[in-house]
Amino acid sequence: MNRPPITDVLARHTPGLLALKGVTGTGEGAAGGQPIVVVFVRQDTPELRARLPRSLEGYRVVVRASGEVTAPPR
User: Cβ distance 49 to 2 under 8 Å?
Assistant: First the structure.
């Protein structure tokens, strides 16, 4: 399978994923020796999972609950 680099896939899809209420970030990871797209969410719910893709451009999407993410005070 010929896939684009995962960094390019994340660059294209992260803005749309972050626009979904409850998504706090994206990243890349690995599972079973294969690269995956990780979508971080405040709370993993069936409703939010239904709105997220199962794969992006040939990469499996894995959802991970991160809780609330905030910037540190300056």
Answer: no
